[in-house]
Design goal:
399 residues; Nucleotidyltransferase, domain 5; 2 domains; six-stranded mixed beta sheet; 38% helix
Length: 399
């Protein structure tokens, strides 16, 4: 079975086509600037055909899906002969609220439930829905599956997800911790158990998904028991442009002293804060590392703030779990940032956690970087959220 994986954003659409017999990517690409002027990059992976990369008209997600299908089936750039070779489509959906604890086959009831989650993800969920509806229109009869970023975290106990605000806000509106990057935390935690050769039962893992968006999860017996992101992806660690956890009084100060509207404040906290806001250099950790090495004090401060918060969450989760079998680094920075891994793990040495600092000097592959004598294993595991989506889609469709 071929499974098409779709990750639709407000003005973009990423895709990968998997051959699920071998779990290999056959083609991948991205539609950008949807609704503006439009650009498509399509890359056939296995058959040696050329890459397509041009500006094309993409007024809506429907045209974007049409363009994707045309490239997947074209003689010059294609990897399949017709649309009939796509057995199912898996969609990444930001938020499932309390309604979904696992991936589901999409029907009208599921679409209604996803729509009801829009207040929790007003920027992402409408785009997710546009991607789903565009696929339904262009590929009628092809099964569509929703895979939720929040689903893996639905095992968090109530005392860890209820906020200490008036309880009516949880009862009436579902305001609680949900957590995100669930497909990534799920994938790398399962992979870690394979690497360690231990069963789920009795296992204790701390998974660190670090990048432009960052979150950390505490996983016990294969199930998430706490995570750093909350109602939205804004809570937790400072990120590329997001502030992470801050004193809520800052919002009223910005409104009163700066005269900002709530919408303007949220724009600042989501898009102008994090390591970008502190460094004034970039939201890209590579640029900040370079500026830090060059003596830029604000870049150095931004990295220290980020590293310090990572340490605080790891320390908290070591306490929550009563120890850990392994700490796992993943995602863009976790996989490709040896400097970050070394700084974080150096600060953990007081807890008996050590890495081989020479062996740590690599990027982008699975590796056990634990030093001899460490009480906890330290692993680097590249994540593969798209493969999780493809696997769930195949499993659900085949029943």
């Amino acid at each position: 079975m071929n499974v098409l994986v779709i990750n639709a954003g407000s003005s973009s659409l990423k895709y990968q086509l998997f051959d699920m017999e071998t779990e290999t990517v056959v083609a991948k690409g991205m539609c950008e600037r949807i609704g503006i002027d439009g650009r498509l990059k399509h890359t056939p992976v296995l058959n040696g055909k050329p890459v397509f990369k041009e500006d094309i008209s993409l007024p809506t997600h429907a045209e974007a899906i049409n363009a994707v299908i045309e490239k997947l089936t074209s003689k010059e750039y294609g990897v399949i002969s017709s649309l009939k070779e796509i057995g199912a489509v898996g969609h990444r959906v930001l938020h499932g609220g309390q309604k979904f604890s696992k991936s589901v086959l999409i029907d009208e009831a599921v679409l209604k439930a996803i729509t009801e989650c829009i207040p929790f993800g007003p920027l992402h969920i409408p785009a997710n829905l546009m991607g789903i509806k565009a696929c339904q229109k262009i590929m009628p009869g092809v099964p569509q599956v929703a895979v939720f970023d929040t689903a893996f975290h639905q095992t968090i106990p109530k005392h860890a997800y209820v906020y200490p605000i008036p309880y009516k806000y949880y009862e009436q509106h579902g305001l609680r911790r949900y957590g995100f990057h669930g497909t990534s935390h799920r994938y790398v935690s399962q992979k870690a158990l394979e690497v360690l050769g231990i069963p789920e039962k009795g296992s204790r893992l701390i998974t660190c998904h670090l990048g432009n968006g960052s979150s950390i999860a505490a996983i016990k017996d294969g199930k998430c028991v706490d995570t750093s992101m909350g109602l939205s992806p804004l809570e937790g660690l400072p990120m590329g442009t997001r502030c992470g956890s801050i004193d809520p009084t800052i919002l009223s100060f910005m409104a009163i002293e700066e005269g900002l509207t709530f919408q303007q404040i949220m724009e600042v906290l989501n898009k102008e804060s994090g390591v970008l806001g502190v460094s004034g250099v970039s939201s890209d950790f590579r640029d900040i590392e370079e500026a830090s090495d060059g003596g830029n004090e604000r870049a150095q401060l931004a990295l220290k703030i980020f590293d310090y918060d990572v340490i605080k969450y790891i320390g908290a989760y070591l306490a929550v779990l009563g120890g850990a079998d392994a700490i796992v680094f993943t995602a863009g920075l976790g996989e490709n940032g040896p400097e970050t891994r070394e700084r974080v793990c150096t600060m953990l040495e007081g807890l008996g956690i050590f890495i081989d600092k020479e062996y740590n000097k690599f990027k982008g592959k699975l590796r056990d970087i634990t030093a001899e004598g460490s009480k906890v294993k330290v692993l680097v595991i590249p994540t593969d959220e798209e493969l999780v989506i493809a696997r769930d889609t195949k499993e659900i469709v085949e029943g």
